[in-house]
């Protein structure tokens, strides 16, 4: 007869204050996300000087950007699944090693083929990182702070993109374009050392996939040092264990949620790529100076960073689905303001900031919804595949905008395009919320029957 006390890790994680140990985990995750964001923008920032020095036509750089996108998609699909199969920690380490090493390799490229290979391999690491760190952070965070934690990590990408712009402005004029990659890649490899030393495995993963109660007990003692855990304690959690399978994304009542999350990712990423890549060019078409156009892009990233940080507490207070729905509806008036900002710098910058908040912060909300929607056993797979499908679905957004402009569309016409998608995402979030509420009674009944 079993006499060992059984303790719920859900209760321990939720009832203890977030001490220095978990703050350290969350801080490291944010740093990794920032490095991800820096790496995302390095090639675009260095492209003019790089293409001139290496004798690569700027039109040929499109293949390098495409290779990066292919890598991002492969990383999201493959390494998201691997995170559920082998663990969040080893996959995070592999992703950081990949994009750090091959970012550092770019300054040694001698031709177009080198760049394509280096950026594709770096892209795999970049694409695979977010599913693992979002799953890890969600599983270490108390349920009341889960949305905030995932959103802050997602906001690290926007902060990194903005920091990349500052680094480029400081380093490139004095040291050349290679310095940006040396600094970004070198900082990432330093972070890799910290990750290997300090990043733990998720306690929920250890229990769900491996039944490793010894390591779970060690983690619980770090999370709750003031709680006297018995040496022979056994642990339980509400999440059911199970095999890692893509099919599970469409079973257990998750099919509709999975499809709507894929639609949400594809739509929000398409809107984000449109504004991220075309806003400076379209602002110039409105008659703004180059400096004003670049500043609008910086303000867009600033809005994304602050939105990602502040939407989490708002979601925790008013509810994730309610806040997400309102946030996505608000995209429409803010991009409308940008579209009608010709001759009005205040309207341009105000609209760019608010659009960054709702679009890039909105991507963080979709990450949080995905993290909440899937059980531990398939959480990284669910986030990874939603992200991968989203990247595929939005991959042609920049090229489509180029074709529309070549076909006679004005900057105002293009900037009004996100209005309809904003309502599509809002309706998708409402539907996901309804499906989630229907699943909860069934899940509670299943747990009670155990």
Automatic annotation (TrEMBL):
GO MF, one example? carboxylic acid transmembrane transporter activity
Recorded topology in the membrane? Multi-pass membrane protein
Localization of this protein: Membrane
Could you list this entry's UniProt keywords, alphabetically sorted.
Answer: Membrane, Transmembrane, Transmembrane helix
Membrane-crossing residues?
Answer: 21-41, 61-79, 91-110, 116-138, 150-171, 177-200, 253-279, 291-311, 323-342, 348-371, 392-411, 417-433
Instruction: Give the top-rank taxon of the lineage listed in the UniProt record for this protein.
Output: Bacteria
Q: What is this protein called?
A: MFS transporter
Q: Which organism is it from?
A: Bosea spartocytisi
């Amino acid at each position: 007869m079993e006499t060992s006390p059984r303790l719920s890790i859900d209760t321990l994680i939720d009832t203890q204050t977030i001490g220095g140990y978990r703050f350290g985990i969350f801080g490291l995750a944010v740093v990794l996300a920032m490095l991800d964001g820096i790496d995302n923008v390095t090639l675009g920032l260095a492209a003019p000087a790089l293409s001139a020095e290496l004798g690569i036509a700027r039109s040929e750089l499109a293949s390098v950007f495409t290779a990066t996108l292919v890598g991002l998609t492969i990383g999201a699909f493959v390494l998201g699944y691997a995170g559920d199969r082998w663990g969040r920690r080893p996959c995070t380490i592999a992703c950081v090693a990949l994009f750090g090493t091959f970012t550092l390799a770019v300054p040694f490229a001698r031709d177009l083929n080198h760049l394509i290979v280096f950026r594709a391999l770096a892209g795999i690491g970049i694409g695979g990182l977010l599913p693992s760190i979002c799953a890890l952070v969600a599983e270490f965070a108390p349920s009341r702070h889960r949305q905030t934690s995932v959103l802050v990590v997602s906001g690290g990408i926007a902060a990194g993109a903005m920091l990349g712009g500052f680094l480029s402005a400081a380093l490139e004029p004095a040291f050349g374009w290679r310095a940006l990659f040396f600094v970004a890649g070198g900082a990432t490899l330093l972070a890799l050392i910290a990750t290997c030393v300090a990043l733990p495995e998720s306690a929920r993963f250890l229990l769900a996939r491996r039944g490793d109660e010894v390591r779970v007990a060690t983690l619980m003692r770090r999370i709750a040092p003031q709680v006297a855990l018995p040496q022979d304690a056994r642990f339980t959690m509400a999440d059911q264990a199970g095999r890692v399978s893509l099919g599970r994304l469409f079973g257990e009542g998750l099919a509709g949620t999975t499809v709507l999350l894929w639609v949400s990712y594809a739509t929000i990423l398409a809107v984000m790529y449109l504004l991220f890549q075309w806003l400076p060019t379209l602002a110039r078409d409105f008659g703004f100076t180059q400096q004003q156009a670049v500043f609008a892009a910086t303000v867009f990233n600033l809005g994304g960073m602050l939105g990602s940080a502040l939407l989490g507490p708002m979601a925790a207070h008013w509810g994730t689905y309610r806040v997400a729905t309102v946030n996505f509806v608000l995209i429409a008036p803010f991009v409308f303001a940008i579209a009608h900002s010709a001759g009005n710098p205040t309207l341009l910058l105000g609209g760019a900031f608010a659009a960054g908040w709702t679009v890039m912060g909105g991507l963080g909300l979709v990450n949080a919804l995905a993290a909440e929607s899937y059980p531990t056993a398939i959480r990284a797979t669910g986030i990874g595949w939603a992200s991968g499908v989203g990247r595929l679905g939005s991959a042609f957004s920049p090229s489509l905008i180029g074709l529309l402009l070549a076909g006679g569309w004005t900057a105002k016409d293009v900037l009004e395009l996100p209005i309809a998608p904003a309502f599509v995402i809002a309706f998708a979030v409402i539907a996901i919320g309804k499906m989630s509420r229907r699943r909860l009674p069934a899940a509670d009944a299943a747990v009670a029957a155990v």
